[in-house]
Amino acid sequence: MRIHFLISTTLFILFTLIWILNYPDFEFKGTNFKDKFDNFQFTFPIILYFFKFIIGITLSLLFFSFIANIISSNVKTFFKNKFSDIFLIIVSWLIITSLILSITSLVYPNLFFSHKAWTNQYLALFLSITIVTSLSLSFFIKKNRIKTILLLSIIAFIKPMEIESLSKEKEYAPPKYKNVIIIGIDSLNTALVNKENTPFIHEFVNTSLHLPNTYTHVARTFPSWVTILTGDYPTSNGARLNLTNLELLNLKETLPYFLKKIGYKTYFSLDERRFSHIDSSFYFDKVIGPPETVDELVLSQLVENPMLAITSQLPLLKDLMPQLYNNRGSWKNYSPTSFSNELEDKIKNEGIPVFISSHFTLPHWPYKTKYNTSDSKDTYGKYIDSIKLADKQVHRYMEHLNKEGLLNDSIVFIITDHGESFGRNVDQPRNGNDSMNIPGHGNSIVSRSQFNVLLSLKVFREGNELKRTVKNKSFNFALTDITPTVFDILELPEPKQFDGQSIFKVKSQRSIPLESSLKPSFNSNGSINLKDTIRKGISLYNIDKQGRAVIKDTIYEDLVNIKQRGVIFDKWQLSIYPELNNSLFITDLEEEKLYKYSDFQNKVLAKALLKELCTLFSKDQFKDKSKYCKNVPYLLVNGNVDGKAI
Questions:
Q1: pLDDT tens-digit map of 15-27
Q2: What is this structure's pTM?
């Protein structure tokens, strides 16, 4: 057994070295983390994850060693010691290596060692599995362990059926409060929600209370979700950028905290957490998804080792290597079906009210999964395929919630954290500056494709949908309105004054602030250059006590000050672009037309919008603030300026 473990270890090291030395897209090759992170230290959570991962690798090596030992022992017995031990060892490891490469080439075709040149991978896989299975079964039979085989079969096939049947028999009385369910889809361009791309979401939108003019304040996942959970603008809650230090936020002023206090069980699920480190600190009882610690960035890349690609999916090892399991950031072995299975396994009806926030990130770049069939398509084609998969995920998830009875008395939102643009003409207003037409999200505040989001609501009582209406669906709304709306529907007093407002209490147009975020690096074809983005951006971050990458406090304010800023009122949007010498622009959102501030004819409206922007961002110290905001700002009230309607 020892010789097999040594060979297994050698094979593992060989796979890893070949990949690192030859794979051009290895994201951290040549990166010195100690020089990039100030006060770099291995915190306890990081040490714990590394320790668990090493145990996972060790068990993986033992797993293959055990199989090799069975093969060589049984071949030796069958042929009555006709072959030398060295020959048997070579044969067993040739079979196992063939099996490993066959499985990964077939199941994970985008890994470094998975090549289309394996044209006979089906045959190789069939032969390898047949040989290994036959030799393994013969081991149990020769050792008179038929009872063991039967017991393992019973556990594997009957036990899940018993658990499923028990779950169907559970009946619960309606909870004291309605269940609150928020389902988010990452990077979903609202203009692409239709019968062809997103049939389930399209149907939900058309049969729900849908508010088409809804916006995110920052088109990035973490700031958007913090505005959802707090009901406050980023300028109020402090989450202005992805990976904001959680110590800067008041996490007791969040929806999960308030609901938890009155008896709710709180859940949060997310299948990629590299740039959104929402965790149990937000008072979630259960967090589902890969780790939020910085080690995930490195360890997730070890999925390229075909041995780990296989063993990380085994029930006994997946918890030791969570960086490689149901992690959309590790897209080459990410399975939407597997993540759905995990949600169904961990989210159950326990007879108490629940608050469930779930976010699906398939439509986020690079728009791929292990089932990727889009290599022949351009970036936009890959994106379309990804939103189709996300629609199926959401559909299955809703079916699970319904089966569990969690929808019977519930408030259900389907939302997006932000949109997505591709640098097309339709992704910016007419007369727009080409330098504004930056693809992605959070990069250009005049891009409706990036900042317009989905907000659709259904309310159920005893399994029946209650029809709710707002005063005017064409009003502008924002993600900050979700938390106040929940309190309104639950008929609970608001625990604080929110920046947002219940959608049912909005009686007129309001001002909505927008701001950009840090821009990634792009390739010449418009796709994100992840390696360059990480290398340039890594110096902006520190590691906190929980092992999370967070933006350095010393530069946070500087990064905020260089943001684009804007304000939307009615059909108008005013925007300041630092990249364009702090030029001002006004957009007619209905006509999708952009004007230079100096060319805009309605000077009264232009000044009112500017003063409103100065009020909403009064605490920021952005360049030319003294020039634009030198007068005492005043608010737009009920669509009036100086008592006159706009």
A1: 999 998 886 555 5
A2: 0.88
Distances (CA, A) of 504 to 209, 484, 597, 630: 11, 10, 34, 36
Q: How many CA atoms lie within 13 A of 583 on its CB side?
A: 16
For range 194-199, the mean pLDDT: 97
Query: Cis bond leading into 336, ω under 30°?
Result: no
Closest to 489 (Cα-Cα) out of 255, 238, 267, 310: 255
Token reading at 609 = 């919008």
Q: What does 331-365 look like in DSSP terms, one character per residue?
A: GGG--HHHHHHHHHHH----SS-EEEEEEE-TTST
Give burial (CB, 10 Å; 0-12/13-18/19+) of 581.
exposed
Q: Which segments of 108-183 does DSSP mark as H helices, in order? A: 121-142, 146-169
Find the angle CA(612)-CA(616)-CA(619) to the nearest 5 degrees: 130
Distance CA(311)–CA(581), nearest Å, equals 54
The count of other CB atoms within 10 Å of the CB of residue 157 is 9
| Listed residue (331, 329, 333, 297) closest to 318, CA to CA | 333
Q: Tell me if 302 sits within 8 A of 320, measured CB to CB.
A: no
Q: Which of 281, 244, 321, 271 is nearest to 546 (CA)?
A: 281
Q: What is the pLDDT of residues 86-114, one digit of tens each?
A: 888 888 898 889 889 888 888 888 888 88
Whose tokens are 């913090």? That residue is 226
Please give the DSSP secondary-structure letter assigned to residue 577: E
